[in-house]
């Protein structure tokens, strides 16, 4: 339908007329985002000739019909640009696009994820934080439900057996603020050059998934009338010049922030090494709370005369966010260790079960499974720092699936070796008279019953053994029964003749 820019390369706002379903595509520079979008949607976005070139500047916009809906595909300039002057334009463009997006696609290469997670997810988390500020100022209406975010892991090369585990691990690395705002789904995309056939299959599956997402989003499209107000607010901070006192407070608070952060890192350095080495702390959450409280106390003490300044509130919030990110990474490692420990404990309990015949084996294994699951949830809650948004649902799901698999294997082995025999189930037989036009009674959807009709189910009609019910007397039944009796009498008369 048309191409253009929502935000042009110079940072000027374009127009987005009407209220289409917006698909926002974001990702780091040089991730071949535009190329993949063109393959999925058959669009005509500008592509770069090499990974060193950045083709998308600002936010490209293309309108077309997709999944029976008017769709606006917005390709946002990749973050971590080599030109630092473009950081502000890119950041504002991504925040604006996420504010009006109905479906979000985050495109990145697998090696980017494992090389430096912060380089991929941190800019998205920063944009979500800005989005939350806009929601508090009521410039952006809060979502009634989480918007879908489809994370495309490019050049995926894991085998089929470990694919789900790798994809779950990628999702678990997502910052908590992103998981709170979006319903994150992870899909693998094989390399176009190494596995071209698999790449085409992956692109086709993603297109099918996007059809479903667009169809779901089309029922509740976000209004695009707020775009000019959002853009004006995003550009406002750049034009504001703080007074001299606020500048001095900002300088002092920056120094206090760095001082508190350095003290925290020095305090937890040895503890962090043991955690990264695989140590398990049952009171991990409490320890994080104590370290965080000490760092905040130091920051407040250094800025006791500036607690009312905007700089103090801003830098204190940044310190809290920085500590949470640091602790959340360690907490994720603790969740992983806890999941492995609980799985080993469950497997050990299975092995220690009696080797002889056990008629209650099913109940015993079920009890062990419930105990292991409850133990994981209880201990995982204790590992969460207070106020942290770190999640353990990915590890919980993985553990529960492994427990289910182990329990099923144990039951199958017991049945094969004769140690367990499942209880017999008595069969139930139901018969009906095939000559009756309505052997199971009237259908209330197609029959009109009167007050005089008997709506009791005619059990006699469903069984030829014993008459324990009364036949239904609906108008259609009476008519058909009369026709049947008349036909039977006519047949008997003809037979005698």
Descriptive account of the structure:
The protein is of the alpha/beta class and 497 residues long. 54% of the residues lie in helices and 10% in strands. It has helices spanning 33-41, 87-100, 110-115, 117-136, 160-172, 176-181, 196-217, 227-239, 244-276, 284-302, 310-351, 361-383, 393-416, 459-462, 475-496; strands spanning 2-7, 21-26, 59-66, 69-76, 103-109, 147-154, 182-189. A 7-stranded mixed beta sheet has the order 1-3-4-2-5-6-7, with helices on both faces. Helix 2 (87-100) crosses helix 4. The longest helix is centred in the middle third of the chain and has 42 residues, at 310-351.
Lay out the secondary structure.
Elements: E1 2-7, E2 21-26, H1 33-41, E3 59-66, E4 69-76, H2 87-100, E5 103-109, H3 110-115, H4 117-136, E6 147-154, H5 160-172, H6 176-181, E7 182-189, H7 196-217, H8 227-239, H9 244-276, H10 284-302, H11 310-351, H12 361-383, H13 393-416, H14 459-462, H15 475-496
Parallel strand pairs: 2-4, 2-5, 5-6, 6-7
Antiparallel strand pairs: 1-3, 3-4
Helix pairs in contact: 1-7, 2-4, 2-8, 9-10, 9-11, 10-11, 11-12, 11-13, 12-13
